[in-house]
């Protein structure tokens, strides 16, 4: 399980430990969320083998568990090793790579997670909110009424269980979600916004909703972000 940078402009070895390099250099078979971004990452990382010599197979949100996943791990059953790479950050977390990991465990194949940047953990670390108990909830519903119910549900959980509630949105819908959060949440609720983590433009703020309503709105549109309610 090979992490890669969250931000495209970040040099891989600014956010990855040097211990990952020999593992990456040893592999010639990769199961990846996106072939183009994986090739770019390995090229920037300066792996020893020529990119043209490497074999890539794609595992993404369209991959269905079953025969397709079994085909991906067939080379592993034959004795090869594989690197699993997400499009951004750590594979297997909020990432379809979990499908191939489940299959590996089922077949008794060793799974080795390497250290690297996780936007979820980085946002928790920098939030000032509860790092002892938190939940990542993926995407909120798109439709207005369902989304507002979800926001209120996670707010109640944050207050009643003292559990930080994290979620994401498609970057082009960030600003709409942020406005809905400010309208739906209670003034004393704390709201985290963590944008473009590990990039030079990284921006992280935790404020009460009452303070957010008074401040100038951050430029969220088309910027990868994680939101948290605490």
Looking at this protein, list some descriptive labels.
single chain, 230 residues, 2 domains, five-stranded mixed β-sheet, 8 strands
Task: Describe the protein's topology.
Elements: H1 12-15, H2 20-26, E1 29-32, H3 35-45, E2 55-58, H4 67-77, E3 83-85, H5 98-106, H6 119-125, E4 134-139, H7 144-161, E5 164-168, H8 174-184, E6 190-195, E7 203-208, H9 209-214, E8 225-229
Parallel strand pairs: 1-2, 1-3, 4-5
Antiparallel strand pairs: 5-8, 6-7, 6-8
Helix pairs in contact: 4-5
Please tell me about this protein's structure.
Strand 4, helix 7 and strand 5 form a beta-alpha-beta unit. The strands form 2 sheets. The protein has a 5-stranded mixed β-sheet with strand order 4-5-8-6-7, with helices on both faces. A 3-stranded parallel β-sheet has the order 2-1-3, with no helix packed on it. It is elongated and about 55 Å long. The protein is α/β, with parallel strands linked by helices. It folds into 2 domains: 95 residues, Tetrapyrrole methylase, N-terminal domain (Cobalt-precorrin-4 Transmethylase, domain 1, 3-Layer(aba) Sandwich), CATH 3.40.1010; 111 residues, Tetrapyrrole methylase, C-terminal domain (Methyltransferase, Cobalt-precorrin-4 Transmethylase, Domain 2, 2-Layer Sandwich). Helix 4 crosses helix 5. The mean pLDDT is 96. The protein is built from 9 helices and 8 strands.
Could you report the average pLDDT, rounded to the nearest whole number? 96
Order of helices and strands: HHEHEHEHHEHEHEEHE
Largest sheet: 5 strands, mixed
Instruction: Please indicate the count of domains.
Output: 2
User: What topology, given as strand order, has the largest sheet?
Assistant: 4-5-8-6-7
Rg calc: 19 Å
CATH C-level name of the largest domain: Alpha Beta
Strand content: 15-25%
Strand-pairing-aware structural class: alpha/beta
Q: Please report the total strand number as a whole number.
A: 8
List the total number of helices.
9
The CATH architecture of the largest domain can be named as 2-Layer Sandwich
CATH fold-type name of the largest domain:
Methyltransferase, Cobalt-precorrin-4 Transmethylase, Domain 2
Distance between the termini: 31 Å
- Helix fraction, binned, reads 25-40%
Low-pLDDT segments: none
CATH superfamily of the largest domain: Tetrapyrrole methylase, C-terminal domain
Shape: elongated
């Amino acid at each position: 399980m090979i992490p890669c940078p969250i931000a495209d402009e970040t040099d891989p070895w600014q956010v990855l430990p040097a211990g990952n390099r020999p593992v990456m250099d040893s592999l010639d078979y990769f199961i990846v969320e996106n072939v183009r971004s994986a090739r770019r990452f390995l090229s920037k990382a300066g792996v020893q083998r020529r990119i043209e010599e490497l074999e890539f197979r794609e595992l993404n949100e369209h991959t269905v568990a079953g025969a397709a996943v079994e085909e991906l791990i067939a080379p592993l059953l034959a004795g090869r090793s594989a690197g699993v790479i997400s499009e951004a950050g750590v594979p297997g977390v909020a990432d379809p790579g979990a499908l191939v990991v489940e299959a590996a465990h089922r077949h008794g194949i060793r799974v080795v997670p390497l250290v690297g940047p996780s936007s979820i953990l980085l946002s928790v670390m920098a939030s000032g909110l509860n790092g002892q108990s938190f939940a990542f909830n993926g995407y909120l519903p798109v439709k207005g009424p369902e989304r507002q119910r979800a926001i209120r549900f996670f707010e109640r959980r944050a207050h009643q269980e003292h559990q930080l509630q994290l979620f994401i949105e498609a970057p082009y819908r960030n600003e709409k979600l942020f406005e809905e959060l400010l309208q739906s949440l209670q003034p004393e609720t704390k709201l985290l916004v963590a944008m473009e983590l590990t990039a030079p433009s990284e921006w992280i703020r935790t404020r009460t909703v009452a303070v957010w309503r008074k401040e100038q709105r951050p430029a969220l549109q088309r910027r990868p972000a994680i939101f948290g309610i605490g």
